Amino acid sequence: MSRSPNLPPHTLFTSKLRRRSFLTAALAVTAGPTLVVPQHSLAQSADKTLHIGYQRYGTLIILKQSGLLEHALSSAGWNVKWSEFIAGPQMLQGLAANAIDIAETGDAPPIFAQSNWPDRLVYIGHSGPAPLGEGILVQKDGQVKTLADLKGKKVAFNKGSNVHYLLLNALSHAALTPADIHAVNLTPAAARAAFETGQIDAWAIWDPYLAAGEALPSARLLANAENLSPNRQFLLSTRTFAEQNPDTVRRIITVLSGLKPWATQNQNTLVHTLAASTGLEAGVIQTALSRLSLDIDFMDTQTQAEQQKAADLLAQNALIPHSLQVQDVIWKS
């Protein structure tokens, strides 16, 4: 399995790693087109352990903090194990390799994953739109005043992420193409460092790093995703797990749909917990949470159409080798 030179080391802290846990740890730090697929699935496991991937910010880490899922599934004999990933693309690689059973990402990663592994994952749910939760930052005193001014400029983003799709839409809106900019593929931490030192002209990024970037004295928000991208979060599962455990999948989405009241009632604790996990200030987390949608539901025709539009745009820009049909990986609940 190849290691991406753009990914920083990342370690999952876990003890007595069994075979599946070891693969999860490996996938959390690597990203490449080649997968080593274990010859088993969770549905075949006798101990009924649900493996969930999450990031340091988003719906699933809030679910993890709440304990609601463990409570809801315990009566059916399920244990829940959580594995942290650096970003959505790496998480979906883990999903495709059966290292985890459930994942959450933005809009673009599932499309790239479907292109690479068309039979291994399915959409099981989505959040409401959150267009204020991603955007493009520019140097406050720089030359970029409009989207059209991005032409010829160095623009940093995490390739394959939700902001990759945002950037494509922004460029199209300004009658530009990816060939008109100098694309720089950087993780959030590396991109922030490059932005603060003036090595890049613009930075496409998501919350809570967007909120943190907006607080920088040298930054200005050029555009958020309003009128460009819905910026939804998507819940995904391995196809095998969803087909063999439909009641559990429905229960997961049902629990997530009730997460919003818990987050509201426990906001102070949640803010401090997420601030500690991300290393960001509490005020930054509060801003990001105010823009995060916790309205979770099963997939519907409107959301499927939005994802198809995204897939078509990625194909038109040759970012995936051929067009694909999102409906082929929608779980029929």
From TrEMBL:
MF GO annotations: ATPase-coupled transmembrane transporter activity
Pfam families: NMT1 (PF09084)
GO cellular component assignments: membrane; periplasmic space
Localization terms from the record: Periplasm
Domain Solute-binding protein family 3/N-terminal: residue ranges: 49-266
Record keywords, A-Z: Signal, Transport
Major location category of this protein: periplasm
Free-text function comment from the UniProt entry: Part of a binding-protein-dependent transport system for aliphatic sulfonates. Putative binding protein.
UniProt family annotation: Belongs to the bacterial solute-binding protein SsuA/TauA family.
Protein's UniProt name: Putative aliphatic sulfonates-binding protein
